[in-house]
Amino acid sequence: MQTQQAAVGGQPDLPHRRGGTPCTTRLADACPPDNILLDVPVEGTIQLFDLVARHVARSGVSAERIGDELIKRERLGSTGLGQGVAIPHACVDGLGSAVALFVRTRHPFAFNAPDRKPVSEFVVLVLPLADDRAHLELLADAARWFGERAIRQASRDAQTPDEIHRLMQRTV
């Protein structure tokens, strides 16, 4: 995992943000390989959010609260982007730092995406309540990452969490 210090000047080919951190470093740091779940047998939004909530609850925040916040946010409007991808996200009080999960489901399911296509790839962001700027930057990083057709294809073809993590580290 790369620290902010190592990132400053360490990767001149990557776009940088305020503070010198490459855009992809934030996403990769928030989503280590242990948070990359491939070919998961979930069949709907509630199952997905339950899986994510249980996984993130290891950080000490109640799984029920995490799941409730994800559902509440999704009810405001779909976080589906189209092209089979979505970025569900929620802010949760008591969380120390941002947590991202990449989830690829075994089968796509309806997620109210703007193109009406089912979704099978998700970057789910669970963020501390207090840090709006970091929340928006991480959300923008995930959207930029999924916005690249080559990334979407490579993430669909990836066989291991490490392959996905390497994609997050080297691309925007």
Q: What would you note in describing this structure?
A:
The protein contains 7 helices and 6 strands; from the N terminus they run ααβααβββββααα. The chain has a single domain, classed as Mannitol-specific EII, Chain A, CATH 3.40.930.10. It has helices at 4-7, 23-30, 45-56, 63-76, 132-146, 149-157, 161-170, and strands at residues 36-40, 80-82, 85-86, 89-92, 99-109, 119-128. Helices cover 42% and strands 20% of the residues. Strands 1, 2, 3, 4, 5 and 6 form a 6-stranded mixed sheet that branches. One of its GO terms (molecular function) is protein kinase activator activity. It comes from Burkholderia cenocepacia. This is PTS sugar transporter subunit IIA.
Which keywords apply here?
PTS_SugarTrans_NitroReg; 172 residues; Mannitol-specific EII, Chain A; PTS sugar transporter subunit IIA; sugar transport; six-stranded mixed sheet; PTrfase/Anion_transptr; PTS_EIIA_type-2_dom; globular
